[in-house]
Specification:
The structure holds 2 protein chains of 2 kinds. Chain A is mainly α. Chain A has 9 helices and 2 strands; from the N terminus they run ααββααααααα. The termini of chain A are far apart. In chain B, helix 1 crosses helix 2, helix 2 packs across helix 5 and helix 4 packs across helix 5. The chains are: A mainly alpha, B alpha+beta.
Chain lengths: 215, 131
């Protein structure tokens, strides 16, 4: 009945709680009770366990997508149209939890921050904390200045391509740092990745603006 | 979200945009960033022998609120002593510009930037005195 339990026996997700409907044992990560088949609310499991994939930075995006859409299909509102209000509500809560897990894990920046948080390190990619890393800030300032000074679409394209390459290199470095359990370095690189994303975004926006009148 | 008139004014006509020579002995540089927006802000002060800020410049890559906050701070610190400049609170900046709650961190960034610039200038002076 349950796809997750067969593919990925993770301890956290294998923990049991009683089904709200039949009181039978059901895994925290399960969408449905294996005894009575009733849909379950989202259990207290991490994003990786929820989507039934291994906890690593090196996520296979195709597998992630397959798992996510597979689960979402089983929670489609049409399947619950004739069910009780409680079951409809639980299926929606499950869908929301799966969404959040998917959105977090498919984005390398959010995934890196999430993995760091799981290991007790907070990287504030959304918060108000001020970065105080002179080397990182100097690099960010120089790259943004270069973009501001670029005058031709070709120059902007060059910066955009460089930003994209730096994004990939930074992701590789994050993977290495997390693999080596070097959390300081991984946290630092994750903040850098946020700045590189911003640079790549700005370069794309600038390019679009420059080329628009020619359309 | 609507920006206040003061934010738009500073955003469209930023005051004191530019750069001083970082290595000059009478210049203090503060470089700060907020990962939330991927913003980066540079704020520099030129200080007289009496310890009064004669001029200030900034360069900010960020949203309208971040640009307005740093622009406003460069206006405010001119003529102030280092102590007075370092005592500027983000709440004063946010209040003056009527920043909405989601943009308060931009004013925090500007406060951090002026503090960093003052600290950089003092560090320079101290190492000069030690020589």
């Amino acid at each position: 009945m349950n796809m997750v339990s067969e593919t990925n026996p993770v301890a956290a997700g294998a923990a049991l709680h009683p089904c709200w409907s039949c009181k039978g044992p059901v895994a925290n990560r399960a969408l449905f009770c294996s005894v009575c088949g009733a849909v379950q609310g989202p259990g207290a499991v991490d994003h990786f366990t929820r989507l039934g994939i291994a906890e690593t930075f090196e996520v296979d995006l195709r597998e992630l997508e397959r798992q996510y859409f597979g689960f979402q299909r089983r929670l489609h509102p049409d399947r619950f149209a004739s069910r009780t209000p409680r079951e409809r509500a639980l299926s929606q809560q499950q869908a929301v939890a799966l969404n959040e897990a998917y959105e977090t894990l498919r984005d390398p920046l959010k995934r890196a921050a999430y993995l760091l948080r799981r290991r007790g390190r907070t990287v504030d990619i959304d918060g108000a904390a001020t970065v105080n890393d002179p080397a990182l800030l100097m690099e960010a300032m120089e790259m943004r200045e270069a973009l501001a000074d670029a005058e031709s679409p070709a120059d902007v394209s060059k910066i955009a391509a460089k930003a994209d390459a730096e994004v990939l290199a930074c992701q590789c470095a994050i993977s290495g740092a997390l693999g080596a359990d070097d959390l300081d370095r991984a946290a630092n690189l994750t903040t850098r990745l946020k700045y590189l994303y911003k640079l790549a975004d700005e370069a794309r926006a600038r390019k679009a603006k420059m080329t628009r009148p020619m359309l | 979200m609507a920006y206040s008139d003061k934010v738009i004014d500073h955003y469209e006509n930023p005051r004191n945009v530019g750069t001083f020579e970082k290595g000059d002995q009478d210049v203090g540089t503060g470089l700060v960033g907020a990962p939330a927006c991927g913003d980066v802000m540079k704020l520099q002060i030129k200080v007289s022998a009496e310890g009064v800020i004669e001029d200030a410049k900034f360069k900010t890559f960020g949203c309208g609120s971040a640009i307005a906050s740093s622009s406003l701070v460069t206006e405010w610190v001119k003529g102030k002593t280092l102590e007075e400049a370092a005592a500027i609170k983000n709440t004063e900046i946010a209040q003056h510009l009527a920043l909405p709650p989601v943009k308060i961190h931009c004013s925090v960034l500007a406060e951090d930037a002026i503090k960093a610039a003052v600290a950089d200038y003092r560090k320079k002076k101290n190492s000069e005195a030690a020589e």
